[in-house]
Design goal:
This protein is of the alpha/beta class and about 350 residues long. Helices cover about 20% and strands about 35% of the residues.
Length: about 350
C-alpha cells in the first residue's frame, strides 16, 4: 500500500480528495496547516480525519506564513502593486511543507484538493488544467517546484465541483458543512485596505492630458482597472490605468486605456524544460479569465509578453501564467506594463 499525505483544510474539497485516495487503496495521512491565529475549520478537519479513520498531523506555520505571505501582501499594496497571496502560499508554504511532512513519515506521494491534474509521460510529469473549467485552479500552482510534479496527486482533477459536493454528501463527510474558504483567508472578510495605515495623499492624473483631476488618499487603495473610490468627474467613466509609486501618483483614463497588449514578467518559474526562448502560447493574467493567445519572449530571466489582442488590465504584482493547450508551461509576476497610445 503506497503512502500519501494530503493537506486538509476542513473544507469539502480536501476532505473528498482524502476519501478518494483511501478508496484508491492508498495509506493516507492528513496534515492541517495552522497559518494564522484561530484558524477556521480545524475542528472540522479533526472530525473528518476521525470519520475517515486517518491520522491528522497539525503543523504550525504561522511565523513563516506571516513572513512569506501576509507581510509581502500588505507591502505590495503600499508599493502600488497587486499581489496574489494564494500563489505565494503555494510556492513558499503549502507545497514545501507537504513535501517535508511526506519525507518525515516516509510517504512516496503528497496531495491537495486543488482542481488540477498531473500527467506523466516517461520520466516527465506535467501540470494540467482540471477538467472543470469553471473551477480549474492550475493558475495558482504555476510557481511550485517542477520536481514536486513527480510526487503530486490531485484527486479532484477529473471531477467537477458539483460531483465533489454530491460525493461528499453521499458519503456523509463532516466537512460538507464547512464554509467555502474566503478569497483571502487571513483577512477574515475584512477589506485589505482597512488594515493598512493611512499613507501619503497624492495626485490623480488624467493620463491622456497630464492634468491633475483629483487627490487620492493612498496608492494602496487602488489597482489597475478599478473604478471605485476615485471620486473624480471627467465626463466619462474613469478607470485606474497606471500607478506610479515613485511619485505617489494614480493615473486614470477611459476604459479603452486599460486594455494593453504588452507587459514584462519576472520571477519566472518553469514547469517544463524550456527548449526555445520565443513561445507562442495562451496566457492568463488573472484567475477568472480565459487564456488568450500571446507571444512570450524570454531574455535575461525576464519575459516580454505580447498578446495578439489587447487585454483588460494586466496588473503589476499579479501573475501571468503560460499554457499550451491544457499544459501549464510556467509563469511569473507582472513587473510593468506598456501603455497603449
Amino acid at each position: 500500500m503506497e503512502k500519501v499525505v494530503i493537506a486538509m483544510s476542513g473544507g469539502v474539497d480536501s476532505s473528498t480528495a482524502a476519501y478518494l485516495l483511501i478508496k484508491n487503496k492508498m495509506a493516507v495521512e492528513g496534515v492541517f496547516f495552522v497559518l494564522f491565529n484561530d484558524p477556521p475549520n480545524i475542528e472540522l478537519a479533526k472530525q473528518t480525519a476521525e470519520f475517515l479513520k486517518i491520522k491528522l498531523h497539525i503543523k504550525d506555520l504561522r511565523v513563516l506564513f506571516k513572513e512569506k505571505v501576509i507581510n509581502p501582501f500588505f507591502e505590495g499594496y503600499k508599493k502600488g502593486i497587486t499581489p496574489n497571496p494564494c500563489i505565494l502560499c503555494n510556492k513558499y508554504i503549502k507545497f514545501p511543507a507537504l513535501k517535508e511532512v511526506a519525507d518525515m513519515i516516509g510517504a512516496r506521494w503528497f496531495a491537495t484538493g486543488h482542481y488540477a491534474r498531473i500527467k506523466s509521460l516517461g520520466k516527465e510529469s506535467f501540470l494540467l488544467k482540471g477538467v472543470d473549467r469553471k473551477k480549474d485552479q492550475s493558475y495558482f500552482l504555476y510557481a511550485i517546484k517542477r520536481s514536486y510534479l513527480n510526487q503530486l496527486i490531485f484527486p479532484l482533477g477529473e471531477y467537477t465541483k458539483e460531483q465533489v459536493k454530491d460525493l461528499a454528501n453521499d458519503v456523509g463527510i463532516p466537512s460538507k458543512a464547512a464554509k467555502e474558504s474566503a478569497e483571502i483567508c487571513f483577512l477574515r472578510d475584512k477589506k485589505y485596505y482597512e488594515k493598512i495605515k493611512p499613507s501619503l495623499q497624492g495626485p490623480i492624473v488624467e493620463i491622456s492630458t497630464g492634468r491633475i483631476v483629483g487627490q487620492h488618499k493612498g496608492i494602496h487603495l487602488f489597482t489597475i482597472g478599478q473604478r471605485k473610490r476615485l471620486e473624480v468627474s471627467l465626463g466619462y467613466p474613469a478607470y485606474v490605468v497606471k500607478i506610479d509609486p515613485s511619485i505617489n501618483t494614480v493615473y486614470v483614463g477611459t476604459k479603452q486605456k486599460v486594455f494593453m497588449k504588452e507587459f514584462f514578467v519576472d520571477q519566472l518559474n518553469w514547469l517544463i524544460e524550456l527548449r526555445e526562448y520565443k513561445i507562442s502560447c495562451d496566457v492568463k493574467i488573472r484567475y477568472a479569465m480565459n487564456p488568450e493567445k500571446a507571444t512570450v519572449t524570454i531574455e535575461n530571466e525576464e519575459a516580454k509578453v505580447v498578446f495578439d489582442e489587447p487585454q483588460f488590465a494586466p496588473t503589476p504584482g499579479q501573475s501571468a501564467v503560460f499554457y499550451k493547450d491544457d499544459i501549464v508551461l510556467g509563469g511569473g509576476i507582472i513587473k510593468e506594463t506598456v501603455q497603449e497610445h
